[in-house]
Structures are given as structure tokens and as C-alpha cells.
């Protein structure tokens, strides 16, 4: 398999001198052909700048960008074999939906009948057959999203870039679009580079995830690897809920200098064989599970651990103020490299 | 005392009026809109209809009095070769001025809307607006001096060895004349100068409204800069061009001072109207002639709408 996208020490600094902002710092990353790759990170972490450098909207100040083995670092967007689904969809308001989707073929001088037929095929692919005559303003947010997708796919790009495309949709629609996007990607075999700040979206859709923080790529791996074996404290806390222990408490409870323990791996049980004991400070019901926050005793300064207890499996949920004993298995503990 | 009464607001006239306006939203709207509606409806539209009505009367050549009988003699007179010539020249000038203003304003408006930031934007904005703060007549007579045979432009052209170009232009039939200030070319230059801000400002507003992501999307989808300009920027800027061209077009159609100060002695619609209602006292014919620009603008707007100039609104 050839690499779809290779970033070779790519960096981007905005501004000059003392006011310069280092948006992206020396990113090395290879995205395989046919992969669904997600860049996950908080807003302002530089993930969108990386996407813009691949799309050609922002020029890197260091490093090289390769797409399909070709060096495209200094090529303008219209000369790159990638297409983008923009966060605000960026449909052309003065054109019909069909003309929007056919736009890439029109600028390549494909004959009108052929390009309109192809546009209708793409609209059918995203389940929007029959809206070709309408204008973008007449469609809902979810429909516009699909039009943007059809338009970005019509010229069969090597890589499809998606910049937080589901951010503006409500929860139900977002979940539906997640599975549709994933199914579409498998069917077309096109490399997807997906940008999001939503860890659930990243975990459920991706083949691999790259986690971004403060302009740096902190970890790259499969969703399972990133969740079970986070490389840094930031990754542990950003992806899923995590108890991060450090100092004395970490050494006494886990034997490591810094360690992570996922809340769902902690059970409430008897005093016998308990790894820690404490008092319940807060109980929150989330539907599928109940989150119990426990202030530990016998360790100074007393850390808090949260345990997620599954609903409806005969687990007794303690009340606030109860004394509880916490249990976990040895493999639940993941040692973090001290920062 | 009952505590509820202690906080109750006293029933005053002011309070009652405020309650009435709050519960009857239509009343408030009516009160606010009455002055502008009266102004627009009675004074503006009223005089426009009075003008229209006058166009159907006629002047008795013998007595010099207006005869209040409905007829179309004024409209027939519009088709005299001399009057047709005036209308054709004025409309041709208006079209040329509008085209030149659009071409000159577009790069400037684009720069102001999409690239200039901070103080450069403010400086450009002031540069466009500043001429409007000084009197139109002052600027017009300044141009008279600039364009004169011994004026600054001739002098500069001589220094740069460009006199041959000005002479060639002045020797051209239709636009030429003895000097720039006595030629149709001079009239055109001053018209373009005077109305340029009225094209720059609406065009800039339209260009500012184009989301940056649509331009990036166009490039992303394979369109080079020229294709993006043609298929995305120009169509989305059309409402601005249309708005600006209504200014440049109608201001040129109606102006009677610029062609009087600068140009050869040929007449424009505004001058004919001015002379007919003033010296000749022929208000009916002046009214009929002043309907020409209104009809031309109406046809222009209808064509612009049919061509889809307002689709992006």
C-alpha cells in the first residue's frame, strides 16, 4: 500500500518576530491509502491548520507535504488531488444544487449533459435524489451537508478532507451521518481525513486517530490503542474519562510514578481485597451507567477516583456520604510516562 | 399597608401610554413609520405623479401658457431627430460611465473588502469618501483647470512625452475636441470621477458578504483564479454592481451641470429639461423628457433582474 498523505516535518508559524504564533510544530505523519484517519484535538490545537496545509489553503513554513507520492507543498488548492468538505459547507448560494455538485466537472469543461447526469448520480449516492433544481437556502443543514459531500466526491479525489463536518448538526442527525459517512468511505475506498474535537466521533468512525494538542501530534494509533494505552496524560484525559494518579497516591495504589485508570474498570465491593477505600462525594446518573466520585482515605493529599457502575446488572449503587471499597484488576492500570 | 400595593407602579398617564404601545404593536409601528411614509408617499411620489400628469399637457406656442388638455404631443416631440440625438448621447454616456466605473471600482473594492485590514482599510475608505465631503462644484471647476489646454494634465503629458496620445485622442471623432476640457472625452472623465465612489461602496459591501470559504471551496474543487472570478465572485458581486450601476447610470442621465462646464456644446437630457422648464417655460415638454431616464432605468432594472443580477440576494 502506498501512502495517501505524508507530512514530513510540516510546521506552520503565523506572523513574525515576537508576535509569531506556532500553530503547528514539526508534524510527521503517514496516512495510508483507503484509511479513515481522524485528527482529534481541542479547538485551537492546530488540527484545522494541518488540514488546510494538505488542502493548500495555508502554506507550511517548514517541511514537505506529499499526496499520493507527489510533492504538493507549494501547489495551489486547484492543482491538488484532494477535495474538502468545509465546516460551513461553503455551497455556492447562486447556483442550483445540481450546478453546485457539477461545479468541479464544469470548471474541467466536461460537457453539460454528462456532468449533470454525474451530479444526479452523486446526489442519489448521498440520498438526495430529486433536489437538483433547488437552491442551497432551501435545504436543511443535514441536506446541505450531503450536497457538500457529493460535490467533494464528484471528481473522485485521492483524499477527502472533512473539517468538522458534523459540528453544526443536532445529535440524532450527527449519529446517522456518522454511520453513513463510514459506510460511504468503505464503499468508495477513498482515504478520508476527518477533523473533529468530538472523541466519541473519533473513536466510533476511525481506523486510526491522531491526537493533537498545542500544535503537536501527541499520539497516533487505532481507537483501541489510543483508549487503552494513551501515550501521554493529555491523551488519557482527552479521549474518554480517566482517573490520572500521580505522586505518592500513584506509587501506593499502582506502583507507578503516574498512572491512568478508566472509571468503568473500577468496581465497588467488600472490604476484603479492596485496593482503596473512601467516601462517596457525588453520584451522577448517566443512563447507561452511574458515575460515583470517591474521595480516598489513607493517602495524602487525598485523591478522588471516579467509578462508572453499569446500570441494570445487579450492581448496588452507593449513595452520597457512604463509605465504599474499590476494586480493580491489575491490567486496568496503565502507566503513563512522567511528563 | 398590603405589601403587594407597596411595589405596585402608580397608574400615571405615561404608564398608560407605555402599556398601550406595548400591547398594540401595530400602533407603535404606525407612529414610527408615519413621518417617512408621508414624506415618501405624499411629497416624493406625489410630485412624481404631478410630473407624469404634466407631461400630457401642452404649451400653447402663441400665448406661452400651459394648456391643461390631455394629449401625447410631447411624447411625439421626443422622437424629433434632435431630441432622439440628445437621448441617445445621454444614454450612451451613461452606459460608458457605468462600464468605466465598474472596471475601475472592482479591483479597489475587492482590495478594500477582502485584503485591506486595520489602518490601510480605513485609509482606503477615507480616500473613497473624502471627495464627497467637498462641494461638487469645487471639484468640477478643479477638473476644468486640470483638463484645460494649458492645464496640469497637458503639462504632465508633455513632460512624459505623452502629448501625442492626448492629441490622437482629441483628434478622434465623437470623443475629441479642441482640448480635453472642451471634448466629450473630458465630460466622460469627469463623470467617471464624480460617480466612482457610488460604485465602489455598494460593490465593496457585496464583496465583503462573500464568505471566504466559498472562494476556498471553488479553488479546492479545481477552479483557478480566473474561473473562480467568473463563476463565483462576479455572480455574487452582481447585486453590488447592479446597485452601484443604478447610481452611476441615473446620476449621469440626470446631471446638467457637468456637461455644461466641461465638454463640447452638445446637449444632454438634464440640460434640455433645465432649459425647457426655465428659459422656455415649457414645463410639459420638460416633464415628458424627464420621464425618459425613469423609463430607461426601469428597463435596465428589468433586464438586470432577468439576467439574474439579484439571484444572490
In terms of per-residue confidence, which ranges of chain A show pLDDT below 50 for 5 or more consecutive residues?
A: none
Distance between the termini of chain A: 35 Å
Q: Tell me the Rg of chain A in angstroms.
A: 24 Å
* Average of per-residue pLDDT values of chain A: 91
Write the layout of secondary structure elements.
The complex is a heterodimer of chains A (339) and B (313).
Chain A: E1 3-14, E2 21-32, E3 36-40, H1 47-55, E4 62-67, E5 70-71, E6 82-85, H2 97-107, H3 112-125, H4 141-153, E7 159-163, H5 171-188, E8 191-196, H6 199-205, E9 208-213, E10 216-221, H7 223-228, H8 233-238, E11 243-246, H9 247-254, E12 258-261, E13 267-269, E14 276-285, E15 289-296, E16 304-310, E17 323-327, E18 333-335
Parallel strand pairs in A: 3-8, 3-9, 6-7, 7-8
Antiparallel strand pairs in A: 1-2, 1-4, 4-5, 9-10, 11-12, 12-18, 13-17, 14-15, 14-17, 15-16
Helix pairs in contact in A: 2-3, 2-4, 3-4
Chain B: H1 3-7, H2 13-23, H3 25-54, E1 58-59, E2 66-67, H4 73-77, H5 81-115, H6 118-133, H7 136-147, H8 152-159, H9 163-171, H10 184-208, H11 212-220, H12 225-254, H13 258-261, H14 269-277, H15 283-306
Antiparallel strand pairs in B: 1-2
Helix pairs in contact in B: 5-10, 5-12, 6-10, 10-12, 11-12, 12-15, 14-15
Amino acid at each position: 500500500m502506498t501512502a495517501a498523505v505524508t507530512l514530513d516535518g510540516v510546521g506552520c508559524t503565523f506572523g513574525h518576530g515576537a508576535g509569531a504564533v506556532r500553530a503547528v510544530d514539526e508534524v510527521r505523519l503517514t496516512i495510508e491509502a483507503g484509511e479513515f484517519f481522524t485528527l482529534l484535538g481541542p479547538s485551537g490545537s492546530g488540527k484545522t491548520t494541518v488540514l488546510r496545509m494538505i488542502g493548500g489553503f495555508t502554506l507550511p513554513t517548514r517541511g514537505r507535504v506529499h499526496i499520493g507520492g507527489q510533492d504538493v507543498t507549494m501547489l495551489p488548492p486547484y492543482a491538488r488531488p484532494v477535495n474538502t468538505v468545509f465546516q460551513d459547507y461553503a455551497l455556492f448560494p447562486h447556483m442550483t444544487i445540481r450546478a453546485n455538485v457539477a461545479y468541479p466537472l464544469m470548471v474541467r469543461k466536461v460537457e453539460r449533459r454528462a456532468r449533470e447526469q454525474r451530479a444526479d448520480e452523486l446526489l442519489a449516492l448521498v440520498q438526495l435524489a430529486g433536489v437538483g433544481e433547488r437552491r442551497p437556502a432551501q435545504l436543511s443543514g443535514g441536506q446541505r451537508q450531503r450536497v457538500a459531500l457529493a460535490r467533494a466526491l464528484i471528481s473522485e479525489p485521492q483524499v477527502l478532507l472533512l473539517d468538522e463536518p458534523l459540528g453544526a448538526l443536532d445529535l440524532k442527525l450527527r449519529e446517522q451521518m456518522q454511520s453513513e459517512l463510514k459506510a460511504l468511505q468503505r464503499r468508495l475506498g477513498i482515504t478520508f481525513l476527518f477533523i473533529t474535537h468530538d472523541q466519541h466521533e473519533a473513536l466510533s468512525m476511525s481506523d486510526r486517530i491522531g491526537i493533537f494538542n498545542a500544535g503537536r501530534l501527541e499520539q497516533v494509533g487505532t481507537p483501541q490503542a489510543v483508549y487503552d494505552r494513551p501515550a501521554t496524560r493529555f491523551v488519557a484525559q482527552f479521549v474518554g474519562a480517566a482517573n490520572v494518579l500521580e505522586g505518592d497516591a500513584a506509587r501506593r495504589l499502582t506502583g507507578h510514578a503516574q498512572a491512568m485508570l478508566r472509571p468503568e474498570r473500577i468496581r465497588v465491593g467488600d472490604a476484603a481485597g479492596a485496593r482503596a477505600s473512601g467516601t462517596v462525594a457525588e453520584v451522577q446518573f448517566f443512563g447507561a451507567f452511574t458515575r460515583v466520585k470517591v474521595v480516598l482515605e489513607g493517602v495524602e493529599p487525598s485523591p478522588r477516583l471516579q467509578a462508572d457502575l453499569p446500570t441494570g446488572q445487579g450492581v448496588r449503587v452507593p449513595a452520597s456520604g457512604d463509605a465504599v471499597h474499590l476494586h480493580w484488576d491489575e491490567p486496568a492500570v496503565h502507566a503513563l510516562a512522567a511528563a | 399597608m398590603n405589601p403587594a400595593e407597596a411595589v405596585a407602579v402608580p397608574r400615571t398617564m405615561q404608564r398608560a401610554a407605555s402599556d398601550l404601545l406595548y400591547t398594540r404593536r401595530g400602533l407603535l409601528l404606525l407612529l414610527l413609520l408615519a413621518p417617512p411614509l408621508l414624506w415618501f408617499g405624499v411629497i416624493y411620489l406625489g410630485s412624481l405623479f404631478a410630473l407624469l400628469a404634466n407631461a400630457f399637457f401642452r404649451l400653447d406656442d402663441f400665448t406661452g401658457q400651459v394648456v391643461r388638455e390631455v394629449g401625447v404631443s410631447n411624447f411625439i416631440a421626443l422622437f424629433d431627430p434632435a431630441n432622439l440625438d440628445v437621448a441617445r448621447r445621454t444614454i450612451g454616456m451613461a452606459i460608458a460611465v457605468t462600464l468605466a466605473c465598474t472596471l475601475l471600482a472592482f479591483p479597489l473594492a475587492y482590495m478594500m473588502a477582502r485584503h485591506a485590514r486595520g489602518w490601510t482599510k480605513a485609509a482606503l475608505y477615507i480616500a473613497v469618501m473624502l471627495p464627497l465631503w467637498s462641494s461638487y462644484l469645487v471639484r468640477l471647476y478643479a477638473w476644468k483647470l486640470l483638463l484645460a489646454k494649458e492645464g496640469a494634465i497637458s503639462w504632465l503629458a508633455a513632460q512624459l512625452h505623452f502629448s501625442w496620445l492626448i492629441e490622437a485622442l482629441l483628434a478622434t471623432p465623437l470623443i475629441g475636441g479642441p482640448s480635453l476640457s472642451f471634448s466629450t472625452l473630458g465630460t466622460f472623465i469627469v463623470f467617471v470621477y464624480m460617480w466612482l465612489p457610488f460604485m465602489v461602496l455598494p460593490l465593496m459591501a457585496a464583496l465583503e458578504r462573500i464568505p471566504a470559504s466559498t472562494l476556498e471551496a471553488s479553488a479546492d474543487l479545481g477552479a483557478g483564479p480566473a474561473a473562480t472570478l467568473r463563476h463565483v465572485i462576479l455572480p455574487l458581486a452582481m447585486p453590488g454592481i447592479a446597485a452601484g450601476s443604478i447610481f452611476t447610470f441615473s446620476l449621469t442621465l440626470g446631471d446638467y451641470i457637468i456637461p455644461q462646464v466641461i465638454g463640447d456644446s452638445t446637449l444632454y437630457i438634464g440640460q434640455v429639461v433645465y432649459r425647457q422648464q426655465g428659459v422656455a417655460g415649457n414645463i410639459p415638454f420638460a416633464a415628458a423628457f424627464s420621464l425618459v431616464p425613469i423609463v430607461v432605468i426601469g428597463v435596465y432594472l428589468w433586464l438586470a433582474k432577468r439576467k439574474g443580477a439579484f439571484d444572490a440576494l
